[in-house]
Amino acid sequence: MEINTKTLSIVLIALIILIVFVSTVVKSYRNHINNLYEVVERKIEEEAKKCFMEEKCEGTETTLGNLISLGYLDKQINPVTKEYVSEDLVITFDGKECITSIR
Fold it and tell me: Is 54 helix (H, G, I), strand (E, B) or coil?
């Protein structure tokens, strides 16, 4: 059974298109998930920075639970799992900006 070059070329082109399509979809999905997390993290960090600037939060660290109890935030929802973010989440303040990660 011989495979002619025309059939082989069509199969190879289809395979290349499929690989490019799948890799593009995976990259777009990962980028979307990262953007969802970034929005929630940025919101938490901005409110934590307000708390530190108004000197209601002391030291260099605070927790999400502390920000909620002080009225800066409501409970935050993880955008992927749709569960509440733990109130034990630590937010670190270095004098200029706050840093946290919910991932």
Answer: coil
C-alpha–C-alpha distance, residues 85 and 77, integer Å:
5
pTM of the model: 0.83
CB 91 within 8 A of CB 63: yes
Torsions phi, psi for 62 (to 5 deg): -145, 175
Give the three-state DSSP class for 43.
helix
What's the pLDDT tens digit per position in 58-99? 999 999 999 999 999 999 999 999 999 999 999 999 989 999
**Cα dihedral across residues 49, 57, 62, 86: positive or negative:** negative
Residue type, 43: K
At residue 93, the 3 state secondary structure works out as: strand
Task: Answer yes or no: are the C-beta atoms of 64 and 75 closer than 8 Å.
Answer: no
